[in-house]
Automatic annotation (TrEMBL):
This is Cytochrome P450. InterPro entries: Cyt_P450, Cyt_P450_sf, Cytochrome_P450_monoxygenase. Pfam families: p450. Belongs to the cytochrome P450 family. It comes from the Eukaryota. Its cofactor is heme. Keywords: Heme, Iron, Metal-binding, Monooxygenase, Oxidoreductase, Signal.
């Protein structure tokens, strides 16, 4: 799911498709998000007690590196997007800069970096976790699986008909449309030893990312 959601949000935020589904591999940014989130959660808690500077030398290097890598990726890609200027297909970074025009309402450089990072994490990591959780819950309730699959497949004869035409937020559109298209195209089955997948996850700043193993079979279309 991370491949799909990151592919979508990278295009919307930076105007650049990272192509995870096509390359069949994780973009480096996806790999640093889990450690980055754990590091951020720890920093927020420690800061509340005024202990950040005291504890910082003892924080695991992997946690520190994950957070630093997230900042570096955000900074690099945001600067790249700003240097390109306005395009025929505006992205969030360009819009956040006011089309690179100066003015009282223009965001500072730090604000652009912060918003870009928030959009990437919320639009890829958070949505991927939601989709994985929805699939798990659906697979552990067969009667619900049959019902929702029928609701997605019966009204539409072709995939192109399956679109969102309602005033929803970006996250809602991305989540619902991805989920609907997944169910329209594929039959899903939970792999063995996945029964405690949901219960075994931890929560930090967001829920912990944990691989969910599902058998995916292309749907057999009836004439």
């Amino acid at each position: 799911m991370n491949w799909i959601t990151f592919h979508i949000i990278s295009d919307l935020v930076f105007g650049e498709l990272f192509g995870c589904p096509n390359k069949e591999e994780y973009h480096p940014w996806i790999n640093v998000i889990p450690d980055g989130i754990v590091g951020l959660a720890a920093a927020i808690e420690l800061n509340g007690y005024g202990l950040v500077k005291i504890i910082e030398p003892f924080v695991p290097k992997s946690m520190q590196k994950g957070r630093q890598d997230m900042v570096e990726y955000t900074t690099s890609l945001t600067k790249k997007g700003l240097e390109l200027g306005e395009t025929t297909k505006p992205d969030f970074v360009t819009l956040m800069s006011g089309g690179n025009k100066k003015g009282d309402m223009a965001m500072t450089e730090g604000e652009r970096f912060g918003n870009a990072e928030a959009l990437i994490v919320a639009g890829s990591n958070t949505v991927a976790i939601l989709l994985s959780s929805a699939i798990y819950l659906m697979m552990t309730h067969p009667e619900k699986t049959r019902r929702v699959t029928a609701e997605v497949r019966k009204p539409f004869k072709t995939d192109s008909e399956n679109e969102m035409n309602f005033p929803l937020s970006l996250a809602e559109v991305e989540t619902r449309l991805t989920f609907a298209k997944f169910l329209w195209h594929f039959d899903l089955e939970l792999c063995p030893n996945q029964a405690d997948w949901l219960q075994s996850r931890k929560a930090y700043f967001t829920w912990e990312e944990k691989e969910l193993f599902v058998k995916v079979k292309e749907r057999q279309m009836t004439q």
